[in-house]
Specification:
Helix content is about 15%, strand content about 25%. It has about 350 residues and is of the alpha/beta class. The chain folds into two domains: about 1-155, Spo0b-associated Gtp-binding Protein, Chain: A (Distorted Sandwich); about 160-335, P-loop containing nucleotide triphosphate hydrolases (Rossmann fold), CATH 3.40.50.300. The strands form three sheets. The chain has a six-stranded mixed beta sheet with strand order 10-11-9-12-13-14, sandwiched between helices. A five-stranded mixed beta sheet has the order 3-1-8-5-6.
């Protein structure tokens, strides 16, 4: 299934039905009088956060959405039927913008959350409402309120506790497949992962946390290069970063340069700063990956360039995965306790 995280739609609520102008004309009823019913309210456009919806793909193929109009009032005080609300089901984490004004209307952050984008028009009044002591046979009614039309842009930001950062081939997909039930496509070439992946990591009986594999970050991503902003925005809601750095990438077997690993780390940190400087203040754990492909001596040389609490793992052999999970869980618990 394709991952779609941005769509534009035009939505319209239902207009209210007009009020009725009618009079009782029954046999043997000498004093009939007005009996026009009110018009029904138009349906509203409501966005619903649905855990069963993973992307915005289903909305991409239909750009016009409209709720039902209210029915007109009828004789004998019969009120017109209310128009049915239009419910648009979207993934949890969807942001709804007024695209004409580029203004955020609301976010849907909780499963089952409902937010109204366009209220339905109120139904008009029947002539019964205008009867007075001096006007026994009013013919006055009011029309229903018009519908409300809105151009909206929907953006999906993944909701995760932990975001995996790193260049293509840093081992993010392999790691998330080893510590959770997520199964991203994995191969040995850049940009294997073209869609974000979410995985739930179980921590024994203590609990669980959600990890998001944020793909496609390269130098220049903050300016939209590569997959750019398309996936950078998915890191906004994560509490903690796992910054994955491959020990094997660009390694010259004859003359390995540990500083190259530090260089890649600084490049991605700079991309985060240029996208949103506040991200640099977010907690992170430095994780040196693919330890099974290099020598212990080289690993120690690289570790010397990073904080002492940097972790070394191999998702292929499983080395360091348990300490990584427990360290991540402990950090999340500390953050939640603040």
């Amino acid at each position: 299934m394709r991952f779609v995280d941005e769509v534009e739609l035009t939505v319209r609520s239902g207009r209210g039905g007009r009020g009725s102008s009618s009079f009782r004309k029954e046999k043997y009823v000498p004093m009939g009088g007005p009996d026009g019913g009110d018009g029904g309210d138009g349906g509203a456009v409501v966005f619903v956060a649905d855990e069963g919806v993973g992307t915005l793909l289903d909305l991409r193929h239909r750009t016009q959405w409209a709720a039902e109009d209210g029915e007109h009032g009828q004789y004998r005080l019969r009120q017109g039927a209310r128009g049915k609300d239009l419910e648009i089901h979207v993934p949890v984490g969807t942001m709804v913008y007024n695209s004409d004004e580029d203004m955020l209307l609301f976010e849907l952050l909780e499963p089952g959350e409902r937010r109204t984008a366009c209220p339905g028009g109120k139904g008009g009044l029947g002539n019964t409402h205008f009867k007075t002591s001096t006007n026994r046979a009013p013919r006055q009614t009011t029309p229903g309120e018009p519908s409300v039309s809105l151009n909206v842009r929907l953006e999906l930001k993944l909701l995760a506790d932990v975001g995996l950062l790193g260049f293509p081939n840093a081992g993010k997909s392999t790691l998330i497949s080893r510590i959770s039930a997520a199964r991203p496509r994995i191969a040995d070439y850049p940009f294997t992962t073209l869609t974000p992946s979410l995985g739930v990591v179980e921590v024994g009986d203590s609990g669980s946390f959600v990890v998001a594999d944020i793909p496609g970050l390269i130098e220049g991503a903050a300016e939209g290069k590569g997959l750019g902003h398309q996936f950078l925005r998915h890191v906004d809601r994560t509490q903690l970063f796992l910054h994955l750095l491959s020990l094997a990438e660009d390694v010259n077997v004859e003359d390995p340069d540990p500083a190259a690993v530090l260089g890649r780390y600084n490049v991605l940190r700079d991309e985060l700063r240029r996208y949103d400087a506040d991200m640099l203040t977010r907690p992170e754990i430095v994780v040196l990956t693919q330890a099974d492909t290099v020598t212990p001596e080289y690993i120690e040389q690289v570790r010397a360039l990073f904080p002492a609490d940097a972790l070394v793992i191999s998702a292929v052999t499983g080395e360091g995965l348990k300490p990584l999970i427990h360290r991540t869980w402990a950090t999340l618990l500390a953050l939640r306790a603040r």
